[in-house]
Amino acid sequence: MHTRRASDTHNTHTHYVPSGSLSERMKDELMRLDFDIHHISVMSRRSKLHHGMVRLVISTLATPEEIENLVKKDVRKNRTGRMYSVKLTSAGKSRMAFIDDRTHRILMELCEGKRGREKIFPFSKEEMDSIVGMYSPPGRSYGVERLRKAVISILRDCSIFGEDFVSNIVEGREADRVADFLEDFHPFFSGMWDLEDEEVAKDFLKVYSEVTGKGVREIAERVMESEERVRKLLDS
Questions:
Q1: pLDDT of residue 20
Q2: How far is CA 118 from CA 106, 111, 146, 172, 209, in A?
Q3: Diameter over CA atoms, the chain
Q4: Where are the alpha helices (DSSP H) in 119-186?
Q5: Which three-class secondary structure string do you get for 40-63?
Q6: What's the CA gap between 108 and 141, in Å, rounded?
Q7: Considering the entire predicted model, what is its pTM?
Q8: Contacts of residue 236, Cβ cutoff 8 Å, sequence gap at least 6
């Protein structure tokens, strides 16, 4: 199995690069989860509202109740230290959670025209699960909790020195240390679960092509990229 790191020296999340046959690649559970999360993130771009919700789950490990309770005033306009953040509330308890710049931009766009206490995501838990399921990879069925668990597995694999950064994230503790961890290891904070980076996009599209058997035109339509870019990446 080959791996590579993000080009930015501060972002050291290990991203799984295709090598060998699909069946061989997908035997590695973390590799499979990495692709699944990337797939849900990319495909959900068809709807800004859906994509914003998916990104909130992936970026903060938000639960269905936290998603449901998120209102406009919970999304901080300015950075908390060096990162943007949101306030997430569940069972009467609140936590501050960092979000990457792209997720913040999308949430701010979704907040436009809303009142301070107006909910951003007007979905029931069942509807949330249906939305995530809509963008799941072929042969895989995800809901919010399964998506959360997949991200947790990736983050736990990145944890070093035995520190439980996942617990710190979901409990809103150790903000400075969590910020360092997210910058170094969370794929959203290094662009690894998006398609802007050419190498990341190439890796994803080649696996997606093999998983689905679809041609350039249909792939381009599905991932909302130009046929020219998709063809160039698949041929490289």
A1: 54
A2: 16, 9, 27, 23, 40
A3: 52
A4: 125-134, 144-158, 165-171, 175-185
A5: HHHHHHHCHHHHHHHHHHHHHCCC
A6: 29
A7: 0.87
A8: 202
Dihedral angle, C-alpha 210, 214, 215, 219, nearest 10 °: -100
pLDDT at 91 over 60: yes
CA of residue 96 relative to chain centroid, distance:
18
CATH 1.50.10 at 24-194, yes or no: no
Specify the pLDDT at position 27.
Answer: 56
d(CA 155, CA 152): 5
For residue 90, the one-letter residue type is: S
Please enumerate in sequence order all residues whose Cβ is within 8 A of that of 216, keeping only pairs 6 or more positions apart, or say none: 227, 230, 231, 234
Structural domain spans, the chain = 24-194
Residue type, 116: G
